[in-house]
Amino acid sequence: MWLCYLKSARRTARLVLGAACASLLLAPVGVSARVQGHTVRPALAALVLRSGRGAPGRSARPVPRSSAARRCARRRRHRVCARRGAATGSALQAPPPPAAAPTTVQAVSQQAVVSPTSSRRTVPPQQPPPPVEPGTPFRFFSSTSFWNEPIPSTAQADPSSAALVGALDEVVAGEQQGGFGPWINTTQYSLPIYTVPAGQPTVAVELAEHRPEAALSSAWSQVPLPSDAQPSAGSDGDLAVWQPSTDTLWEFWRLSRRGSAWQASWGGAIEHQSASSGVYEAGSWLGAEPWWGTSASSLSLAGGLITIEDLKHGQINHALEMAIPAPRAGVFSSPARRTDGRSASPLALPEGAHLRLNPDLDLAALKLPRVTMMLAEAAQRYGIYVTDTSPVVELTAQDPNSTGSEPYTGEGGLFEGMRPSQLLGAFPWGQLEVLQMELHLTR
After folding, report:
1. Which residues have a Cβ under 8 Å from the Cβ of 304 and sit 6 or more positions away?
2. With bands split at pLDDT 50, 70 and 90, how would you rate the model's confidence at 79?
3. Over the stretch 25-36, which tens digit does the pLDDT of each residue have?
């Protein structure tokens, strides 16, 4: 037991050191510089305060743990600290959620190798890829949504692109050197999507631990939520319900069931989903507000989710969503509607920022793993949007709760025997560009 404790303590010290390095990299160098060279517009919406809490962003997630730490986790419970984000006009902190039982991360035989001359990881051999299914994967929202439109050839990089990407690349390098990121969320702090038929019985989902929001409660009054639905593991408890017959999407944050009654602390609903832009706004539902949504930016997480169908079809035909450790405070970029950013550094990316891989980069020459190549192709054609705050740089893949099986790991798994940190260790982070931003100040 003492050996377990010492290993866990050593692991904690390493994570604290990594966080300190990231903080130094993003130290404030002048708040006034954060909007230079941009058209700055006042935010269109103010935060609706709820019981002394900020609007929901993404809770702090446990970083991927070593095998020793996982063994220790089986012997004791870990407390996850959840700091919810500030929406436009406020910076409030929610109380931490109750301790959650640790989620066991399945170990894989392949391990990343760090070159002695570089902090970047080399890629181990992969398992044979699973067969690719024919056809095009389903994607949420309109074909003209910012999630789904290819980046035009005329798109210009932001004047601050090189500096912003340089700072992000340093954070990524530190996470890779520390062995705890970047990461792809799959079975916790992710988003399960329950696709339901026309005849699915409906239930009311109560808006709990929040001041009244009549329009949202109305949107949740008849939700075709299956009785056995399970939100994603972790304190966020995210879940989405998609009903094709009514073209409606519901999203929930901190969804839980008490007996036969369901409740959630925040979220949203989008009717006429197939015509939606993919961000919460007045047209999302009758009475909808721009501070709706499970992400801290009000961008729907369904739009940038790496779905199981994407991976089975061998292509991602939409932009990706990315959470980062320290988004910029006090400002966000369209199409975001709000932010939970807390960094005063002008080198911090704002939420809503749209990144892409250099369009002239020859991806085939990089010999990337199959999944990494899919991510790189999507980032080059559609881009990546910053949507939220997280402990490490992370992408999000569909939580398989609704499927009854875990498709990512193991022999024949969609990740082909590789850990998420290995897949993203091969991603060309230094080749990203930040596209021209339209910034808005919070108020």
Report:
1. 147, 318, 319, 320, 321, 322, 384, 385, 387, 396
2. very low
3. 444 333 333 333
At residue 157, the 3 state secondary structure works out as: strand
CA gap 85, 58 in Å, rounded: 7
**Per-residue confidence (pLDDT) for residue 411, from 0 to 100:** 83
* Residue 92, domain member (yes or no): no
Find the domain containing 142 and state its range. 113-190+300-441
Distance in angstroms (rounded) separating the CA atoms of residues 389 and 336? 13
Considering the domain boundaries, does residue 267 fall inside one? no
Q: What is the pLDDT of residue 132?
A: 73
Tell me if residue 418 falls in helix, strand or coil: coil
Q: DSSP label at 245?
A: T
- How many independent structural domains does the chain possess? 1
Q: Using one digit for the tens of pLDDT, what is the confidence trace for 141-166? A: 999 999 999 999 999 999 999 999 99
pLDDT of residue 133: 73
Provide mean pLDDT across the span 207-224.
95
* Chain centre to alpha carbon of residue 254: 15
Contact 206, 255 (CB under 8 A): no
In a domain, 145, yes or no: yes
Burial pattern 265-282, b for ≥16 Cβ within 10 A else e, equals: bbbbbbbebeebbbbbbe
What is the maximum alpha-carbon separation in the chain? Answer: 60
Q: For 13-25, b where at least 16 C-beta lie within 10 A, e where not — what string? A: eebeebbebbeeb
Q: Is residue 383 part of a domain?
A: yes
**Measured between alpha carbons, how far is residue 42 from residues 71, 340, 367, 393 in Å?**
50, 16, 45, 28
A 10 A CB-CB count for 237 gives 21
Q: List the helix and strand counts (H, then E) for the chain.
A: 7, 19
List, in order, residues 6 or more apart from 46 with CB less than 8 Å away. 88, 89, 90, 443
Please state, for a pLDDT cut of 90, what percent of the chain lies above it.
67
Q: For the chain, what percent of residues have pLDDT higher than 70?
A: 71
- The DSSP secondary structure of 192-229, one letter per residue, reads EEEE--TT---B-EEE-SS---HHHHHHTSSB---TT-
What pLDDT shows up at residue 62? 41
Give me 124's structure tokens: 């181990």
Find the helix or strand (DSSP H, E) in which 67 lies: helix 67-75
Residue 62's contacts (CB-CB under 8 Å, 6 or more residues apart) are 78, 80, 102, 234, 391
pLDDT of residue 67: 37
155 CB-contact burial (10 Å; exposed 0-12 / middle 13-18 / buried 19+): middle
User: Which amino acid, 349?
Assistant: L
Whole-prediction pTM value? Answer: 0.76
